[in-house]
Amino acid sequence: MPFKEIKLNDGRIIPQIGFGTWKIPQDKTQDNVLTAIDVGFDHIDTAQVYGNELQVGAALKETGLKRSDVWVTTKWSGVAATRPAQAIKQSLDKLGLEYVDLYLIHSPRLVRPNIFQGWSEMVDILKKGQSKSIGVSNFLISDLQELESSPITPAVNQILLHPYVYAQTKPLIEYCAQKGIVIEAYSPLVPLTQYPGGPVDKPVYAIAERLGVAPEQVLLAWIKSKGAVILTTSSKKERLERYQAVADIDLTDEDIEAIELAGAKGPGLARFRKYVKPVVLGLALQGAAYVAYRWLL
Ligand SMILES: NC(=O)C1=CN([C@@H]2O[C@H](COP(=O)(O)OP(=O)(O)OC[C@H]3O[C@@H](n4cnc5c(N)ncnc54)[C@H](O)[C@@H]3O)[C@@H](O)[C@H]2O)C=CC1
Ligand SMILES: O=CCc1c[nH]c2ccccc12
Prior knowledge:
With 297 residues, this protein is α/β, with parallel strands linked by helices. The protein has helices at 26-38, 53-63, 84-95, 115-128, 141-145, 163-179, 190-193, 201-211, 215-225, 237-245, 253-263, 269-272, 276-296; strands spanning 5-7, 13-15, 17-20, 43-45, 71-76, 100-105, 131-137, 156-160, 182-186, 229-232.
């Protein structure tokens, strides 16, 4: 089955695979994005906190692509204690765009305890046309429940998704399906990048050998089987070509079950969500420093 164009609850169509730009140094971003677009990516994912929106924008300009031919997502990450209204203006400026396709709250920690208020600020951005769709990232069911009385449901929830966290994440995935919220899966290759030698390797390598494909393609095909948007990355053109080729790789129900059974024997969410806390702590310190600076002025 080729990559689907996934329909969001606001009627817009999002390309099923996106090129992620987290951790790409500024001096490499423009080239990497150009390579991604060259091999067929038409969906780029960045964020305020990645610090490379300017270079993403430069790449988009260099391609000469029509604005409607590329999907651009960015996120409000709360850098320097910004609120969404200020952050979106800065992001659009850096990207050199009049609108983004999707604007996300990067983490519920940015808006707790008043999640509804934070979401209302995102709705304002939607109304102003600064983003065509709005959504959230790293939201739990309890966070999403706070938004149930909003007239606008998040279009997506961008979350960590790979076989080692699938069993624990299933209730969230099911909740999102029920509410019409599309899942965007980030870090799908964690079994290869952060837990090589783990129980998922056995079925993944066996399936890869049987199909004559690479193990990373099997993991991305597994995400595809869930109907989620895939967010992945590489600086290498050949890898990006392999990711794109996943459009033509379909797993059987037995393959999917074998991967999930092995995934359930792995370490689970606690092992893989560690980075979020230090990052958010860093942002909080940055915010506190800014508030102190404004108070001293
Ligand atoms: N909203 C959020 O909080 C987050 C969003 N993201 C988004 O998702 C994007 C993708 O996330 P990643 O964690 O980078 O994705 P990922 O799990 O797809 O990992 C990509 C890495 O895997 C490597 N790789 C590919 N094949 C491999 C193999 N066979 N063996 C070993 N390594 C291999 C690639 O070279 C690349 O460095 C990010 O760039 C960002 O845009 C990522 C993390 C958090
Ligand atoms: O997006 C990737 C991980 C990350 C980097 N900075 C933040 C801030 C808030 C949530 C997640 C992240």
